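$ ./design --mode recover --in tokens.txt
reading tokens...
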């Protein structure tokens, strides 16, 4: 069955592509990645980090791009929770049409991406492909256009799980730049990719938004694509001990709910907002940081971080 499907897809895919056409950026490139581990949070992710290019380095007389990673608070992406971590060095092997990577602490190349793959080929082992056997193979090859630039895309499939990820020329994979390409219940996924402060690629998994719904440090504005409405709301006092006052300063909707999340992303309290000013008893909450989200239907209308004394 698999061979038949591959033959069918060959009819619709180009059988060969030339040398590396779209290169990785030399600088000002950011990969925004979500991570998920057990137990998963209600948001579908537990962590957030950014990979970026941090200049050049020479290893074994070859020029590489240095890749660094910084992890951020999923409830406020303005707050870094780790120092910049050197992940390794990336090099484009134009002659062999491959992307190579030297992990931190090593001196030898390992394969990151192979742009010679054809429909039906199995992904070879590499830094981000560690599975054995023939579980991962190229289902189809096509192109996508990002900011007027056409990039080759290799759509991948696992024999028992169906299509699940793609490799995109000059960007990486839909799991991230360096993250392992998974076959099932992926633990990392590329949210979006920026270059020179411009959005270049947005993962279809997130429809029309790169922002995370948990980020309380964003300036919330009117944007249908982000499924967000603007409401001016005051929370006081903050820090709070017993009673939290929630005041709608302009618009008010009696169809909204306030949700409390703890630092693990667990929803621990929900309150229906019945008036433009409402007092909420939080005395029973443990001391710590809480993240508040107000929703009207499926729309997030406000986010806020509070401290419970």
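writing sequence...
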């Amino acid at each position: 069955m698999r061979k038949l499907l591959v033959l069918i897809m060959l009819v619709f895919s180009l059988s060969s592509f030339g040398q590396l056409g779209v290169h990785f950026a030399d600088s000002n490139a950011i990969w925004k990645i979500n991570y998920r581990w057990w137990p998963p949070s209600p948001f579908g992710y537990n962590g957030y980090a950014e990979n970026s290019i941090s200049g050049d380095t020479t290893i074994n007389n070859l020029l590489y791009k240095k890749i660094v990673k910084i992890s951020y608070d999923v409830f406020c992406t303005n707050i870094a929770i780790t120092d910049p971590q050197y992940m390794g060095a990336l090099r484009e092997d134009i002659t062999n049409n491959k992307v190579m990577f030297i992990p931190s602490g090593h001196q030898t190349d390992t394969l990151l991406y192979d742009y010679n793959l054809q429909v039906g080929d199995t992904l070879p082992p590499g830094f981000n492909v560690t599975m054995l056997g023939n579980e991962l193979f190229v289902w189809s090859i096509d192109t996508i256009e990002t900011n007027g630039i056409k990039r080759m895309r290799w759509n991948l499939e696992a024999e028992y799980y169906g299509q699940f990820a793609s490799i995109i020329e000059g960007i990486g994979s839909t799991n991230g730049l360096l993250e392992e390409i998974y076959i099932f219940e992926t633990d990392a996924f590329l949210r979006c990719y920026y270059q020179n402060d411009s959005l270049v690629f947005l993962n279809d998994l997130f429809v029309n938004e790169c922002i995370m719904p948990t980020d309380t440090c964003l300036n919330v504005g009117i944007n249908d694509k982000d499924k967000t409405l603007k409401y001016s709301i005051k929370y006081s006092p903050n820090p709070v001990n017993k009673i939290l006052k929630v005041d709608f300063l302009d618009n008010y909707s009696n169809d909204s709910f306030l949700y409390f999340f703890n630092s693990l992303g667990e929803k621990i309290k929900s309150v229906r907002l019945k008036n433009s000013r409402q007092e909420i008893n939080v005395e029973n909450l443990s001391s710590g940081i809480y993240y508040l989200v107000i929703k009207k239907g499926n729309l997030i209308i406000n986010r806020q971080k509070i401290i419970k004394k």
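exit 0
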